[in-house]
Amino acid sequence: MSWLLIASIPPLLWSISNVLDEYLAKHHFAANGVMYIIMASVLELLVGGVLIILNPFVLQVPLPDILFLGGLGVLLSVSFIPYVYALQGDGAALAVPIFQLEVVWVFLLGWLFLGEGVTVQGLLACTVIVVAAIGIGWDFKTRKIAVRTLLLMLLSTIGLSTYTVSIRHHAMTYDWLSIYAWVVTGAGIAACLALCVYKPWRDQAVEILQRSGKKVSTIFVMQSGFDMAANATLALALTLAPAAGFVQTMNGLQPFYVFIFALILGRFFPHLYEHIKIDAVFFWRLFCIIVLFAGVGWLSSL
Fold first, then answer.
1. What is the pLDDT of residues 136-187, one digit of tens each?
2. 3-state DSSP assignment of residue 107
3. Which of 80, 170, 180, 219 is the 20 to 30 A CA-CA neighbour of 226?
4. Model pTM score
């Protein structure tokens, strides 16, 4: 199967995860966005345990690499904390397009540490995708991108790009399932330790579960399932692609999916999601999406 086809799957899965993220962050974790990441990471520990039991190759990874991959899992979780606060402020439709800044960091880190080379045409195609994605988040009222959201997403993308390049390095040695198992296990163990050590977080977790445990748990399972499937598919794509930057650039499709989902959800669930009007802003974002697709098509032809 082509790496390009595989790399196009994570953006779709993440976009579904994004809209679920927005709902949970705004309506159930508004008081503390960190708790959202901690509780999601605890759930990932269960998944990591299942993968370790079912896949014997996971146990063949040397201890130093297990510790390193577990540390990457912690980095991945921490990198999503600024993203959660960005969702609480401006929503997925504005925050998610800024994720495309990660492409710049991935190409830079891949060039510095992995010796990956890219063509001029590839860089130009990536530039088109990044500019179009950021254009989707342009605020016509203030005539600029929200500074707070931009800074939060900048912090998030630096951490995520470091994670991506590090995974690319280990993908040359181990299968993607073994990598993912230790990544989520490390994140889950760190989250459990955080709950054990810090009583206020533990109390908040109990309160959230008591107040709306069934609803939150159900959506958590759905959201985490989409998110983990996206991360696993990304790890697979990184083992097949010629460069980590090309895989990451395919995430330029994510703002399009988020935009479509936000449009549909805002129409049918206005009490949960902001209603998107069919006006000049809508057509501007539609234009940016068309340019974004053109950039992805250009990249795929190289």
1. 767 666 666 667 887 888 899 889 888 887 877 666 677 777 888 899 999 9
2. helix
3. 170
4. 0.78
